Amino acid sequence: MGLPFIVLNYKTYLQGTGQGAVEIAKACKAVSEESGIEIAVAPQLPDIYRVASEVELPVFSQHLDGIGAGSFTGHVFGKSIKEAGAVGTLINHSEKRLTLAEIEASLKAAKEFGLRSIICTNNVPTTAAAAALGPDYVAIEPPELIGSGIPVSKADPEVVSGSVEAVAKIDPRVKVLCGAGISKGEDLRAALDLGSQGVLLASGIVKAADPKAALEDLIRLV
Ligand SMILES: O=C(CO)COP(=O)(O)O
């Protein structure tokens, strides 16, 4: 197995807002360069351009709407985030849930604009459904563990291994990430040992007093 993929979701945490978004991205880039591990960040939409312009690392959007150019006030348009410098997007995060039809439309928009796609899911059946749509990644994140500091890879290992098995049956090209409560080296190690190919995480790094040190701890057992 190759190196994991780490995606850091900034949500709307103060520490990851505005200039903070750039500073955390710089820490991610430094650790990525030291380790060879790909680390992507997902700042808030208005910070995408700022982060992508100032730091050379993969920037993802936290959301994308399945719409095109035209009369869609307040929506997130794929061409706009692409031109802002995003290379990918989260779709259906637990804090930004979509209907199945909307997920499919968002994924179509991501593909149309050459954006890498991560569909977030909450259990094994939704992971299977998401994999059937053919994204680049699914990210299984049980909502009850999000922000809890209790790692999914230890509290609910079956949802990770079950997702890995389900996705392998449906479309082995789809890669599986997991998230919720991941912050330490042993959490990432456990996630990889369960067959996932990386993690999607937030509070453990974004809210850390020293995000670079927290990232170094996260990857220490890879
Ligand atoms: O929702 C998450 C990442 O998208 C997980 O959040 P935490 O890492 O804070 O549990």
Automatic annotation (TrEMBL):
Signal peptide: none annotated. Its EC number is 5.3.1.1. The active site is at residues 93, 141. It is found in: Cytoplasm. Keywords: Cytoplasm, Gluconeogenesis, Glycolysis, Isomerase. Substrate binds at residues 9-11, 146, 181, 202-203. NCBIfam families: PRK04302.1 (NF003302), tim (TIGR00419). This is Triosephosphate isomerase.
